[in-house]
Design goal:
Elements lengths: L4 E8 L12 E7 L4 E8 L5 H11 L6 E4 L6 H9 L3 E5 L4 H8 L2 H10 L2 E8 L2 E10 L16 E11 L2 E11 L5 H10 L1 H12 L11 H18 L11 H10 L1 H10 L1
Parallel strand pairs: 1-4, 4-5
Antiparallel strand pairs: 1-2, 2-3, 5-9, 6-7, 7-8, 8-9
Helix pairs in contact: 1-2
């Protein structure tokens, strides 16, 4: 059974503030496979994400799925909440970062992981560069001093990303803890899949120009945010012509014949 990836992350609506006031920050739960937002909560600033994430998790159905969260939300209480709701987690590291980094820096451990089959390598070409991703996962975590603090913790993960462009090479590392048992296909899907919510936030800014919108009323701004996400979920899979269109061009096509497109959508 394929677990769905539910990504949780926040985005600040930068123009939604007056004077010294703070712009609204929206924390969303985004379903990668379904391509739509399952729920959201507003906070006054990014540092409050850890307060509303448990509230957001209470409002959505996550049983049997995998929840991914960036380092801001890597908290023992959040991991416990996810497991109590009978879901799995893949959490980017903050407090355990150095311990896990040191473990994966040992070439001997990397060789063992590759030999065990808990290793995957992918290569993609995009935007004039080559991206090579290597994933390592291990259940060898008995040595982890804080293991007992993380409910359901089963494995640790490293993603090594090598970026080659214009003859130059850059290497980036990311580390995670997870309640998932060793399954490199599943863990690589979860780690890579978190980009879908970052892509959604990018479209809100670039396709819908959210950061340029100066709606000051907090509730009105949140409602507009919901409408943009809803529109994005409809537009992204839509096939309007034989040629592949950018999201901006899709918006333009719909604006030229909105009634006709709505009728086609309802008939689909």
């Amino acid at each position: 059974l394929l677990k769905k990836i539910i990504c949780i992350d926040g985005k600040t609506m930068r123009s939604n503030k007056r004077g010294a006031g703070k712009a609204a920050h929206i924390v969303s739960a985004w379903s990668k496979e379904d391509g739509f937002c399952l729920g959201q909560k507003a906070v006054e600033e990014k540092s409050n994400e850890i307060v509303v994430i448990p509230e957001l998790l209470d409002k959505i159905q996550i049983k049997g799925q995998t929840v991914t969260i960036d380092a801001m939300g890597t908290q023992t209480a959040i991991a416990e909440k996810i497991k109590k709701k009978r879901a799995d987690y893949v959490l980017a590291l903050n407090s355990l970062y150095e311990d896990v980094q040191e473990y994966f820096s040992d070439e001997e451990f990397q060789k063992r992981i590759r030999a065990s089959g808990n290793y995957k390598k992918t290569q993609e070409k995009a935007h004039g560069q080559v991206e090579i991703r290597e994933y390592y996962q291990t259940e060898d975590i008995k040595w982890l001093s804080q293991k007992k603090n993380w409910k359901g913790l089963s494995s640790i993960v490293m993603e090594k990303k090598t970026i080659e462009k214009d003859g130059k090479r850059r290497i980036e590392y990311r580390y995670f803890i997870s309640s998932l048992k060793a399954d490199i296909e599943q863990i690589s899907r979860a780690v890579r899949g978190h980009w879908s919510i970052e892509s959604m936030h990018w479209h809100l800014d670039v396709t819908f120009r959210e950061d340029a919108n100066t709606t000051l009323d907090k509730m009105a701004a949140q409602n507009l945010n919901i409408i943009r996400k809803w529109s994005l979920s409809i537009l992204k899979p839509a096939q309007m012509t034989r040629h592949k269109l950018s999201m901006r061009k899709k918006r333009f096509v719909v604006s030229m014949r909105p009634i006709q497109y709505l009728e086609e959508l309802l008939e689909a």
